[in-house]
Amino acid sequence: MHSLRFLFSRRWIVFALVVVFLAWVAWRLGEWQFHRLEDRKDRNAIIERNEEAGPSPVEDVLAPGRPVARPDEWRIVEATGTYAVDDTVIVRYRTREGEAGVNVVVPLELADGTSLLVDRGWYATDNRGATREDVPAPPPGEVTVTGWVRQDAEGDSTQVTDKSTRAVDSQEIAQALDREVLGGWVDLRSESPEPATALLPVELPELDNGPHFFYGLQWWFFGALAIFGFFFLIYDEVRGGRGPGPSPARGPAERTPTPTAPPKKKRRTWREMLEPDDEPDVPGGAEPSERPQQATVDREHHARQE
């Protein structure tokens, strides 16, 4: 337990709090992705169920001033009336495969005097604005249409200016056109008779689960990785590593002494190696110049006697 006392230092406490926060954020983001996955599965089930049910009379599903319920979205409805071409509303900023365009919403006047907003499809504009005169006209006279019910959009993008908007909201369009319209709107599925020039049909959502499952796993993996890294640093610190920060400086007693090289033996010259060494080695490693001069003294004494 004594070796874990470093965990109570300020540096390690802050480090632990950061790891806990990151793991919590990763967990919440993973849950968010899995919730989106469940919502997508529910939406796909609703679309498939409504597609199999077939078209229903529009008055059985929609009514003026009543929002579209979630189970009713993507239901197929059928209505008969006359297009009010003069009240066409252009939905701006609708790109398709990188090409600029608009969606064309035209009210369909019903027999009871109410109107159904019909998104007739997409029209390419080549990065320029479009008005009612620019888009192909709908079929004249009485028309029978079928379409998928859609919920109204929300936010500032639903504001209508000069019969143009960025998102469809039946209430905003009703006020701008001074019409009584049914709540919600429909994406055109078919119309009879067919127009002279058809717009591109709306793009339906893909009925797959999307990438949400793998995104959720990735976020949870990041959270687990942060926790694993924290405990690995604890293990490394106990083992003698550096931990999450710089290690403290060692004291003089803890420093490892630098080994010193042994003294080198003096190298003998070639003359010393070739001359005979009659004298005994001087203890203590004395130099040849320091040896006793006994042999020289004997030679001088012998010369004087001669």
Q: Can you walk through the features of this model?
A:
A five-stranded mixed β-barrel has the order 2-4-5-8-6. It is of the alpha/beta class and 306 residues long. It starts with 9 loop residues before the first helix and ends with a helix. The chain has two domains: 2-48 and 211-239; 54-192, OB fold (Dihydrolipoamide Acetyltransferase, E2P) (Beta Barrel). Helix 1 (10-53) runs antiparallel to helix 3. The protein has helices at 10-53, 170-177, 212-239, 270-274, 294-305, and strands spanning 56-57, 76-83, 89-91, 101-109, 115-124, 142-150, 164-165, 185-192. It is elongated and about 110 Å long.
Fill in the keyword field for this structure.
Surf1/Shy1, five-stranded mixed beta barrel, 2 domains, cell membrane, transmembrane helix, OB fold (Dihydrolipoamide Acetyltransferase, E2P), 8 strands, SURF1-like protein, 306 residues, Surf1/Surf4, alpha/beta, 32% helix
What gap, in angstroms, lies between the N and C termini? 95 Å
Mean pLDDT figure? 83
Q: What order do the SSEs take from the amino end to the carboxyl end, as H and E?
A: HEEEEEEEHEHHH
CATH architecture of the largest domain: Beta Barrel
Tally of contiguous helical segments: 5
Query: Count the strands?
Result: 8
In this structure, how is the largest beta sheet organized?
A: 5 strands, mixed, barrel
Number of domains: 2
Helix content: 25-40%
Radius of gyration: 46 Å
Low-confidence stretches: 282-292
Strand content: 15-25%
In which order are the strands of the major sheet placed? 2-4-5-8-6
CATH class call of the largest domain = Mainly Beta
Overall, the morphology is elongated
Broad structural category: alpha/beta
Which fold name is given in CATH as the topology of the largest domain?
Answer: OB fold (Dihydrolipoamide Acetyltransferase, E2P)
Family: Belongs to the SURF1 family.
Keywords: Cell membrane, Membrane, Transmembrane, Transmembrane helix
Subcellular location: Cell membrane; Membrane
Region (Disordered): 243-306
